[in-house]
Amino acid sequence: MNRKNNNNRGFSLIEIIVTIAIMAVVTAGAVSIYSLINSSKLKSMAGKVNDAISDVRSDTLTKEGVYGYLMKYDNTEKCCTIYLYKDGNTANPYKKISLGSSGRYYVKDKSGNPYYLDKVDTNGLNFEFEKSDGSFKFIKATSSGTAIDMDNYIYVSYSGKVKKIKLVKLTGKHYIE
Question: pTM of this prediction?
Fold first, then answer.
């Protein structure tokens, strides 16, 4: 007697190919969403820095006094922080913006060496605007108290990608590249 075994175990080649194709589509979608989220986070971080620059410039041109911007590591917040100050009083800022610990913020010297503003040392970026025309009065980057001849960009990096904020000295303009 010849009995057929209807208890078929295993998958056909077509079933395996369809399953792999579905997994590939789902994985590609997840990777693109992750990349989109990272890109959005980087834009937000750069926008926060750029908006603070706009605030200082606007305050200088419209209010009494000279307003300034100081960006450096804050030991109490444990992250890079922007301090907006008035009349050179960096010790008593009128506004403090914590940038969080998720990204990196730095400037570069003319040779391309980075100076990270989110490290626990004395690296910092400081500038003020001219009241008369809105141009930069000075842009001063320092590392351990020594002035850095910087390349006029603030770099914001997150998850391996970088956005640059260009500072145009003569006009006071600034924009995200």
Answer: 0.79
